[in-house]
């Protein structure tokens, strides 16, 4: 075949003057032997240069080439996210404190022992919140709204009072300015219930682990949530991270009271998105701070 065998090539590379000619023979005729790691070692010992070795790796019979040396890749250390303790508070871009709400599962809707439930709170159903979030400890105050938006539309004035008379779109725009959003209805109730089943009747989260973290979840003013309102949504709501209906006439409201009724965690409200209500404010949530 004219291909060089190992003995012939070894004789050629022993002579440094003939070694460059060996490459010409290799390129023209090829070699008849496998280029294994042991073969490479023997040829280097005989005088083969790096250029010759590289050429042999290309011309050796298929499947018999010596593997090129590689650096051993060290495994990267596993990356773990630090655990955030429930109730951890951090200040947001609007100067208000945000409280960490970890993921979990809870019973949403009318409690079995609550005789004041309305039909839109039924049926009671299990919901899983898969991602933790930061929720503002209090409703957005008039002072915070003034800092971010440069105005205070509230009817009842006071820098530390909740801002009200803001439309749904204005509330959402504020949250966006501080790198947040309005909570979903499920996130709001999950935060109010501390992730447990809880009873329907509860003033300001009494009996809830969250009551020492979040202030005025019930009994203060209504707050906008991100969802559209659908009185029958609980009949077909997703079990995981329900986003609310895709369309609707009203936006959801939570946390307030109407008339002489007692504050109840499962109470659902609704409002026209463009109307400025004197008893409706909001609070924002964020995925990270």
Number of helices: 7
The share of residues in extended strands comes to 5-15%
* Silhouette: elongated
Strand order of the largest sheet: 1-2-5-10
Low-confidence stretches: 195-211
Mean pLDDT across residues: 86
Q: Which percent bin holds the helix content?
A: 10-25%
Number of beta strands: 10
Question: What string, H for helix and E for strand, traces the elements in order?
Answer: HHHHEEEEEHHHEEEEE
Structural class designation: alpha+beta
Compute the separation of the termini in Å: 73 Å
Topology record:
Blueprint: H1 6-14, H2 19-29, H3 37-46, H4 50-59, E1 89-91, E2 97-101, E3 104-108, E4 125-129, E5 133-136, H5 142-149, H6 168-177, H7 185-193, E6 222-228, E7 251-254, E8 268-271, E9 280-281, E10 285-286
Parallel strand pairs: 6-9
Antiparallel strand pairs: 1-2, 2-5, 3-4, 5-10, 6-7, 7-8
Concise account of the structure shown:
It contains 7 helices and 10 strands. The protein has 289 residues and is of the alpha+beta class.
Description:
- This protein is of the alpha+beta class.
- Helices cover about 25% and strands about 15% of the residues.
- The protein contains seven helices and ten strands.
- The strands form three sheets. The protein has a four-stranded antiparallel sheet, with no helix packed on it. A four-stranded mixed sheet has the order 8-7-6-9. A two-stranded antiparallel sheet has the order 3-4.
- Strand 1 and strand 2 form a beta hairpin.
- Helix 1 runs antiparallel to helix 2, helix 1 runs parallel beside helix 3 and helix 2 runs parallel beside helix 4.
- The termini are far apart.
- About 5% of the residues have low confidence.
């Amino acid at each position: 075949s004219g291909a060089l065998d190992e003995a012939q090539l070894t004789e050629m590379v022993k002579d440094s003057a003939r070694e460059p000619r060996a490459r010409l023979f290799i390129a023209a005729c090829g070699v008849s032997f496998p280029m294994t790691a042991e073969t490479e070692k023997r040829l280097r010992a005989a005088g083969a240069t790096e250029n010759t070795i590289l050429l042999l790796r290309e011309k050796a019979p298929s499947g018999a080439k010596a593997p090129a040396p590689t650096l051993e890749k060290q495994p990267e250390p596993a990356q773990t996210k630090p655990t955030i303790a429930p109730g951890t508070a951090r200040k947001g871009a609007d100067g208000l404190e945000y409280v960490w709400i970890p993921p979990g599962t809870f019973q949403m809707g009318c409690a079995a022992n609550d005789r004041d439930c309305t039909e839109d709170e039924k049926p009671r159903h299990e919901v899983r919140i898969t991602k933790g979030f930061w929720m503002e400890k209090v409703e957005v105050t008039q002072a915070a709204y003034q800092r971010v938006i440069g105005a205070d539309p509230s009817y009842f004035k006071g820098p530390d009072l909740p801002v009200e008379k803001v439309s749904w779109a204005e509330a959402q725009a504020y949250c966006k300015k501080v790198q947040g959003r309005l909570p979903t209805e499920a996130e709001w109730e999950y935060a109010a219930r501390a992730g447990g089943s809880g009873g329907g009747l509860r003033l300001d989260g009494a009996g809830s682990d969250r009551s020492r973290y979040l202030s005025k979840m019930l009994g203060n003013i209504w707050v906008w949530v991100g969802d559209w309102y659908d009185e029958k949504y609980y009949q077909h709501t997703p079990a995981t991270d329900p986003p609310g209906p895709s369309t609707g006439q009203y936006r959801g409201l939570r946390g307030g009271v109407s008339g002489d009724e007692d504050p109840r965690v499962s109470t659902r409200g609704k409002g026209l998105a463009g109307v400025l209500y004197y008893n409706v404010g909001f609070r924002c949530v964020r995925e990270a701070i």
